[in-house]
Amino acid sequence: MPEISRYHTSLLCKLTYEEVFEYGGKLAAQVARIVDEEIRQGHERKIMKEKMEILEAERNRLAELVNTGFQKRDVECVVQGDYTTGKAYTMRLDTGEVINERVLRADEQQLGLGIEETDQVARDMHLRTPDGRVVGEPHSEAL
Fold this sequence. Notes:
There is one protein chain. With about 140 residues, this protein is α+β, with helices and mostly antiparallel strands. It has two domains: about 15-70; about 75-140, no CATH class. Helices cover about 45% and strands about 15% of the residues. It is built from three helices and three strands. It has helices at about 15-70, 105-110, 115-125; strands at about 75-80, 85-90, 100-105. The protein has a three-stranded antiparallel sheet with strand order 1-2-3, with helices on one face. The termini are far apart.
């Protein structure tokens, strides 16, 4: 029979034992590379997740400040006694606002011997309640 043409095409061919053994080795190596990559990516995902949590925590902190309009800060305060009313007033030194009012304790009442100095400090500090009224009236002896 005369040959009309010749060409190459892909057809199924049975592997030899040596070829199966060779491809088996390559398969095992590829599986090991995949496992290594999965471990590496798992570690990277953990790092990325931790970074995202840090970023989101800062976002949430800033959002809370913006939403409430308040921030907790360390503020120096002073407790002053008004021995005419028997009350102690806690005042913020940054704004002068009175933030607490209570009855003087027994040990604090003993400090009231220097009435003139206490009244002068109250006048100098402009002790005021949150509604703006001046706390206590000066003693007549101090005037």
